[in-house]
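Quick illustration, no need to memorize.
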Amino acid sequence: MFDKLEDDEHAYRRKANPYYPFHDEGEWQLGKFLVEHLTQTQIDKFLKLKWFNTHARPSFTLKDQLIGWMDVLPCFTEWKVSGLEFTGYKTDQPIELIWRDALDVVKQLFSNPTFANHMTFDPHVVQVGDQREYGDYMSADMAWKIQDHLPVGATQVPIILGSDKTPVTRVTGGLEMHLVFITIGNIDSEVRSKATLRAWRCVAYMPIIKFKVHPDYQTILQARLWHKCMDLICANLKAAAAEGCFMPDPFRYIRYVFTPLIAHVCDLPEASMIAAVSKNASPLTMATQKEFGDGILHPPRTGRHTLQLIVDISETVDPWNLDKFQKAAKAIYLSGVHMPYWRDWTYACPSVFLAGKILHTGHKFFFDHPLNWVKETVGNQELDARFTVQHKRVGTRHFAKGVTHVKQMTGREHRDIQCTIIASIAGAAPPRFIHAIRALIDFIYLAQNPVHSRDSLESMAEALSDFHSFKDAIIDAGARRGKSGAKEDFFIPKLELLQSFCGTVRRLGSLMQFSADVTERLLITHCKDLFNRTMCADP
């Protein structure tokens, strides 16, 4: 990192003035503020104010000059724009991927002296009494398993990816982008969980393009484009995972490192796309739709198994014959993606790296299902009345207008409702129904432990088992409903994913280190806010 600063073409000027090309620290702060908070048109208007006729004017006099100076500042990882195309398939607009080499970004993170006192380089076991504790990744089983396969003295730099798509236009345009973020498991989870500490870095802005094909093939082509983009972004990371590379650490020691993929933080639809499975199959296990609510932990859906199924289909059907290939794939619960990006990433398996996410699989599952069951059983008016009369408490939101009218909530609001919902429905719902809801609340609460032990994992398993023992009360109350009326099943994909939580903790460590809260925040700071300062933003 320091070497790149020294190799910069203007390094000799910065020895005299560290803020070059700006005159001093004050001018640099002004330029930084203008670029971060104003559009280019607004910057021009600011620099043309008559106020500067009687006051000192900054060295930059035009927006183009300011932006040019910003481009002169040292850049550790260069951004690129690559054009992509699928032969034989036309799109509404050219496919342009904005990206940078993920390995270069990882090198920057790994050598950043800011994190020097918050990094772990070797697997370890934390033993408290007679119980082993699982915290960060380096204290879990997978770290040891991978380390056993590496050369003596080698260091693993665990890769954690995060991705999601987001709309960037407010009113019109319908423009969407698919962002990819990256961090490393060597950095302590407490540091990674704070977006302001910049332990996560953006590595790609993926286009979401519409192909000029029949709607039945739109999704499969977009998924294949996504995987192709990921191949390009992570190519050098995959090479380093297989063969290793040399990388300086924060103390400027050169280490021989390997870069295994250990986690990819995303929501359920994206997890299915990554695992190359259809929506009616679990991305983590061999369970299919009719088995989602059975309370059984099914065998893992390993990457090797999925790739073998793809090979078997490809031997008889051309992957680019979309109609036949997609039908053959869906018959065995695959999505039709024939080259998933993780196929040649050493040690990568979707059943492992698609770890459980507290935000999506816990809190949003609660909002979409258990909270709706409570509404159906207790009634909207009664439930709102019970939340309204609760005493206000510091640190917890008071829902003065109730909770049934809210269509969308943050993870914090989900947690606030979970804190009091059992007490709120006491006496208004059957005891067995309350027991089932309480079991799920207990499970979600226990899953948020920053450090797990054998006892805490047993408590989680017991809470989930209790829910399955009492879930018939939800059906009896007529609370499980769909568009066509009452349902008598629990074919809920996220409910099946809960079965894998305990195994994920043992393999990768605490689930909170893979929370999607940070990536959700990064979508705002790295895409929506930036887009609003461009010339393309809505008026």
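The radius of gyration is 26 Å.
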